[in-house]
Amino acid sequence: MISDFVMNNLSDDVQKQIKAEQNKNTEFYSLTIGDSVNQNTIECFDHNWLYDMSDSKANRHLVEQLDKLKRR
User: Fold this and answer.
1) Sheet holding 2-3, edge to edge
2) Are 38 and 9 spatial neighbours (Cβ–Cβ below 8 Å)?
3) pLDDT by residue (tens digit) across 7-22?
4) Helix residue ranges per DSSP H, 1-57
C-alpha cells in the first residue's frame, strides 16, 4: 500500500482479513510518503518503508530497501 497514511484506522474486518492472509505467508508492505503517519494503520503491515521527501537521499534509501526484499 502506498499512501501518506493520513487516514482513519483500518476497520477490524480489514485487519482480520490481513491477519488471515499473513497466516498463509502473505506479506504486506507499506510505503509512507511524507511524515504524517497514522501509526495504528501501519502496525498491521509486515514491513513499513518511509519516503521522506525532505531527505535528499530518499530515493537511494528506498532502492536499498527494495533490493533487500529482492534478495530474500
Assistant:
1) 2-3, 29-33, 47-51
2) yes
3) 888 899 999 999 999 9
4) 12-22, 39-42
- Look up the domain containing 47 and give its range: 2-70
The terminus-to-terminus CA distance of the chain in angstroms comes to: 20
Q: How far apart are CA 4 and CA 25, in angstroms?
A: 26
Scanning the chain, the segments in alpha helix (DSSP H) are 12-22, 39-42, 58-70
Distance CA 37, CA 1 (A): 13
**Cα R_g (the chain), whole angstroms:** 13
**Number of folded domains that form the chain:** 1
